[in-house]
Amino acid sequence: MSTTTLTEAARMFEEALEYLETFAAESRKQIGVTASACDVVQGRVDMDELRTELDLRSRELAVASAFLEGLDEKCNELQALYADVAAQLDRCMNRSGNEDDDDEGFSPSSISPLA
Q: So what's the pLDDT on residue 114?
C-alpha cells in the first residue's frame, strides 16, 4: 500500500469516527427527548390515577356527610323529645305536691344523655 492510500484510509477512518461520535451524541439527545416524553406520559397516567382516587374519595365523603346530616337531624329530634319528657316530668312532680326529701335537687336535665 502506498502512503497516499494509507493517508486516505486514515482520513476516512477519522471521518467515520467523527460521524459515529455525532450519531452517538444525537442518539443521546433523542434518548433524552424520549425519556422526557415517557415522563410526561407517566405523569399523565399518575394524574389520571389521582383524579380517579379523588373522585372515589369525594363520593365516599358525600355519603359520610349525608349520614352525618341524618345523625344530626335524629339528635335534634331526640333533644326535642327529651325536652318534652323533661317538661312532663316537671309538671307531674309539681302536681303531686308530695316532695320527698330524697327528691330535693332532682332535675330531669340531670339524667339527660344528651346534655
A: 59
Task: Give the span between the Cα atoms of 107 and 90, in whole angstroms.
Answer: 8
CB atoms within 10 A of CB 77: 10
Task: Give the residue from 114, 40, 48, 50 showing the smallest Cα distance to 82.
Answer: 114
- Rounded to whole angstroms, how far apart are CA atoms 8 and 105? 119
Residue pair 54/84 in contact by the 8 Å Cβ criterion: no
pLDDT in tens, 52-90: 999 999 999 999 999 999 999 999 999 999 989 988 888
Whether 79 and 114 have beta carbons less than 8 Å apart is answered as yes
Q: Where are the domains of the chain?
A: 3-95
Total-model pTM:
0.45
CB 90 within 8 A of CB 108: yes
The closest alpha carbon to 114, from 85, 87, 76, belongs to: 76
